[in-house]
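Per your request, structure below.
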């Protein structure tokens, strides 16, 4: 079993009682009592917190931690006091105590801890944290810790600067002998906190809420249990992912995972923050494909990797759907394991193009023939723009591409035989339909717009492919002028439904998708 431990990090006994009740209410499976947060720490006060935990959460196992300030502790407490707190916790019957491995190497600390552990039922967690970078050799460090104290549980945690830093942890979780706690901090390391359960880690950590997180990148219990189906994850769970940068705004994990659950499928879609360009994207995909035991079966691909993803599939001699080939970008990758061996077949698709055109035609009350000779302004020249321009030019619309980097707009316009201009030419805007395909105005930068309102008029229709927020500043200003506006929510649902079909072979529940999105925005 992988426990979902909730840190309780109070400044006082009263605050401890409040947090303990909240931890139980959100579904904690284990408690970590972070006594280093106590402002007036003493052995007696720490034992009162342990007692409160026993009273308020009697069925939950307890870890008592008094973290060294130099390894992420909240306050500067002396080694003597911290050791006294931990040994007292052993005598009080704590299920586990967490001691920093570096400090345990001190004979004075080790002898006191070892004596107490030998006389009780408490188990020892020996932890190592690196808040700067990866461990030089995590496997060697793991075995050093295992061999230092018989029966201890190693805990190895480091900061991930890039998602590609996570694979040392995942390899350790797969190859370890016995119980281990291992994950990466910071947003790029998020996947390790979830995949830990599939790989049978002893503990993963999640906070009561955003305010009570005790480590960088620590997510909430609600995010894991309600959104990512923590309780259902097991060794057979298949993972999917949404790849992008940024990615925290994405509703794809909630939408797809809920649809997987409704269909009775043991699948979860994770947010995958892949920073950088082609090199970093390709390295990430290589890392995943070389580890089939992670069971990643497909990906949604978003800004800025739609073209990088297609290039990657080509480099691996994968299959490219004709529409994705024509567009020159993919938003969906499917991984299939061949029946005869461990070789994985990789295929690229594009559901952005049909998703966008279906959204526009429904909103404008036309069919695709209605695009013929329609003057359309497309803002941006990235992957989404490529998909929309491909569809519109095939429907014989008169498209002009506006982009900050004019050369990029020129290249795209050349491919699809349409016009282009720099953003400064938006002042001459005369389109019937204006489409934003950039990230300008996306959460959290909602105060920005890619098109100044003075360049719009009531005879235009304005479509923003951004779906978070549902109504961007661009759409608000366009609606105020009397323009017909089209939200990116419908495009998101249409392309997500196409992806779900590719992921599962089943039709998506559109009403469920829409309900999840609007419940999110209602909050």
């Amino acid at each position: 079993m992988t426990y979902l431990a909730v840190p309780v990090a109070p400044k006082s006994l009263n605050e401890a009682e409040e947090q303990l009740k909240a931890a139980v209410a959100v579904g904690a499976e284990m408690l970590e009592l972070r006594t280093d947060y106590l402002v007036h720490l003493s052995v007696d006060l720490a034992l009162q917190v342990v007692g409160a935990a026993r009273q308020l959460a009697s069925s939950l196992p307890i870890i008592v931690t008094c973290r060294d300030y130099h390894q992420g502790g909240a306050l500067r407490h002396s080694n003597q006091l911290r050791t006294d707190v931990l040994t007292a916790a052993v005598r009080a019957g704590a299920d586990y105590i967490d001691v920093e491995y570096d400090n345990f190497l001190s004979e004075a600390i080790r002898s006191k801890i070892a004596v107490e552990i030998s006389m009780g039922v408490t188990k020892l967690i020996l932890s190592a944290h690196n808040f700067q970078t990866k461990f030089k050799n995590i496997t060697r460090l793991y075995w050093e810790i295992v061999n230092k104290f018989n029966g201890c549980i190693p805990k190895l945690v480091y900061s991930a600067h890039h998602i590609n830093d996570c694979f040392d942890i995942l390899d350790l979780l797969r190859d370890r002998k016995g119980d281990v706690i291992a994950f990466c901090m910071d947003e790029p390391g998020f996947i390790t906190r979830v995949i830990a359960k599939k790989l049978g880690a002893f503990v993963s950590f999640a906070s009561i809420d955003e305010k009570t997180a005790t480590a960088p990148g620590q997510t909430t219990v609600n995010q894991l249990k309600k959104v990512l189906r923590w309780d259902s994850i097991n060794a057979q769970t298949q993972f999917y992912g949404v790849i992008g940068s940024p990615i925290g705004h994405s509703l794809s994990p909630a939408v797809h995972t809920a649809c997987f659950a409704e269909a009775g499928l043991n699948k979860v879609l994770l947010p995958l923050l892949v920073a950088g360009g082609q090199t970093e994207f390709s390295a990430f995909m290589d890392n995943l494909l070389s580890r089939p035991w992670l069971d990643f079966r497909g990906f949604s691909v978003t800004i800025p990797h739609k073209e990088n993803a297609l290039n990657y599939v080509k480099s691996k001699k994968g299959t490219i759907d004709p529409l994705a080939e024509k567009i020159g970008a993919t938003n969906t990758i499917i991984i299939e394991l061949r029946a005869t061996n461990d070789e994985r077949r990789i295929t690229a698709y594009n559901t952005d193009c049909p998703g966008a055109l279906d959204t526009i035609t429904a909103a404008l009350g036309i069919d695709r023939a209605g695009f013929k000779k329609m003057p359309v302004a497309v803002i941006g020249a990235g992957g989404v723009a490529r998909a929309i321009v491909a569809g519109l030019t095939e429907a014989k619309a008169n498209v002009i591409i506006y982009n900050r980097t004019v050369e990029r707009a020129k290249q795209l316009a050349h491919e699809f035989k349409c016009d282009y201009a720099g953003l400064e030419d938006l002042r001459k805007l005369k389109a019937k339909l204006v489409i934003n395909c950039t990230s300008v105005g996306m959460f959290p930068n909602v105060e920005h717009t890619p098109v100044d309102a003075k360049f719009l008029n009531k005879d235009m229709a304005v479509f923003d492919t951004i779906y978070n927020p549902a109504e961007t500043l661009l759409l608000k200003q366009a609606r105020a002028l009397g323009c017909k506006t089209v939200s990116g929510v419908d495009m998101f649902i249409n392309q997500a439904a196409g992806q779900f079909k590719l992921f599962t072979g089943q039709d998506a529940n559109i009403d469920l998708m829409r309900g999840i999105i609007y419940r999110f925005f209602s909050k």
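The mean pLDDT is 96.

Regards,
D.
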